[in-house]
Write a structure and sequence with these properties.
Length: 387
């Protein structure tokens, strides 16, 4: 263990007594929480935990500079071994690169800790299955970090679908497209052995989850798609800035865009466009089509419109713009996670749904490699790992 600050004895004893006196936790502010992975997204989560009043009792990272910065910023204990952190917490938020999700998540589930796991589940379908199996055997709550579900515009669309205002929802157009947004070439994002892929596994999982969520997660029947690497591997890649240091085209071996079509049970479908880079205007627009109405909304601007037609009186079409208040989706995601711990129910993304997303991603990659449509014989809720 490497710690810049050890908790005071009284502080540790007080927290332990508060949550250990019963079989359930009754207050989210008593859930001792740690973070695994202390980079930017770890800081992002820690800031929002403070907003919720959830105590951050420690953080773990293999990098000493990351531990030092986190300890100084949040005045908390830090560790170089996740097992030492797990001894001190009730819940963990895992924000490491994809390849390391399995190790940290499985160890947490084996201790019956509650886990908020940043998307995707893992860098590969096989690894994701093992995480899902461990979660199924654990008494801990598991939520996978698809925070876009918690945007107010999405919530409103979901509520109207539930009320039947859209009729039968049959198709979702899902777009998550940047014009120039390749992460720093040479970072773990652009290394297939660590990330498991590029734009599809980074951005595409958000788009797929949201589309499936609005369709009420039907079983997946088939996927076809193409992934491309057209910009990140170019020496003359044109960009205004990157999110990290640029180590050049040789440090990029993943996809930077994907186009796909997903067919689900009941003839429900998804058309998918995702890109880190492309020669077109960026878009984060989703179109949800139903038999009685449709909706378009933007993930970044929170703009929402409802579209319908009516034969009452004079035949007419109606387009209604709806202004929703802005909200921090990560705060609301965390709140749902901790309320799940207290209430014993899961209001966030379940591991079964996240595994269905991982299956679709894997199917798109296989479709692109083989040039064929990938048929899904197994049900999307199957979580038995391959041996």
């Amino acid at each position: 263990m490497a710690s810049n600050r050890e908790p005071d004895h009284d502080e540790t004893e007080s927290n332990t007594n508060e949550v250990a006196t019963g079989s359930t936790i009754t207050d989210i502010t008593s859930v001792r929480t740690g973070l695994v992975g202390l980079g930017n997204i770890g800081h992002h989560h820690a800031d929002r935990l403070a907003d919720l009043g959830v105590p951050v009792v420690g953080g773990m990272d293999v990098a000493s500079d990351a531990r030092e910065e986190f300890a100084n910023r949040y005045d908390t204990a830090v560790y170089d071994d996740h097992r030492d952190l797990y001894d001190a917490v009730d819940a963990v938020i895992i924000t490491t690169p994809n390849k390391f999700h399995e190790q940290y998540a499985v160890d947490a589930f084996e201790r019956d800790l509650h886990v908020l796991l940043e998307k995707p589940i893992a860098h590969s379908l096989e690894s994701a299955k093992r995480v899902a199996a461990a979660a199924a055997d654990s008494e801990g709550v598991c939520t996978v970090g698809f925070n876009n579900r918690f945007l107010n515009a999405v919530r409103l669309v979901r509520e109207r679908i539930a009320r039947g205002e859209f009729g039968e929802v049959t198709h979702v157009e899902a777009n998550y497209v940047r014009r120039r947004g390749v992460p720093g070439r040479g970072s773990w994002f652009t290394r297939r052995d660590i990330s498991g892929g590029g734009a599809l596994i980074d951005l595409g999982v958000h788009a797929i989850d949201l589309a499936m969520y609005l369709l009420d997660y039907p079983d997946t029947e088939a996927v076809t798609g193409v992934t491309r690497s057209e910009f990140g591997s170019r020496e003359d890649y044109v960009y205004l800035d990157m999110w990290g240091d640029d180590q050049g085209a040789d440090a990029f071996d993943v996809d930077d865009s994907a186009s796909a079509f997903v067919r689900c049970a009941g003839d429900r479908t998804i058309s998918l466009e995702v890109a880190w880079a492309t020669n077109r205007p960026p878009t984060h627009e989703f179109v949800v089509r139903g038999t009685d109405a449709a909706a378009t909304f933007d993930l970044l601007t929170n703009e929402l419109s409802i579209h319908s037609a009516s034969a009452e009186g004079i035949d007419h079409m109606t387009d209604t713009s709806i202004k929703t208040s802005e909200n921090d989706s990560h705060v609301d995601e965390q709140k749902a996670f901790f309320e799940s711990i207290v209430g014993g129910r899961c209001d966030g993304s379940s591991i079964e749904e996240a595994l269905a997303v991982q299956r679709i991603v894997d199917g798109i990659y296989r479709s692109s490699e083989t040039g064929a449509t990938i048929s899904f014989a197994e049900k999307q809720a199957e979580i038995t790992p391959e041996v």
